[in-house]
Amino acid sequence: MAQANKIVTVKLDPETKNKLQHLSKVKSRSTHWLMKKAIDDYVEKEDIKEKLRQETLSRWKEAEAGKVTPHPKLER
Fold first, then answer.
1. Rg (CA), the chain
2. Which of 28, 34, 68, 74 lies 20 to 30 Å from 7, alpha-carbon distance?
3. Of 62 and 17, which is predicted with more confidence?
4. Containing H/E element for 18?
């Protein structure tokens, strides 16, 4: 079952609000669309960064524990 969207409010300083309204007109998009797009893009980027961070930590722990698979090109 799909979850219903939730309303969230964001307090913006007047300068940012004015810039957002200007972009809204220039881009022919609603301010809501611009804010949602910015948040979605940010969350997606941060999610990818966190997954990479967790993978790096996991591999580091494996290497510290001696669980390393040698790469054939490194063996001579």
1. 22
2. 28
3. 17
4. helix 14-27
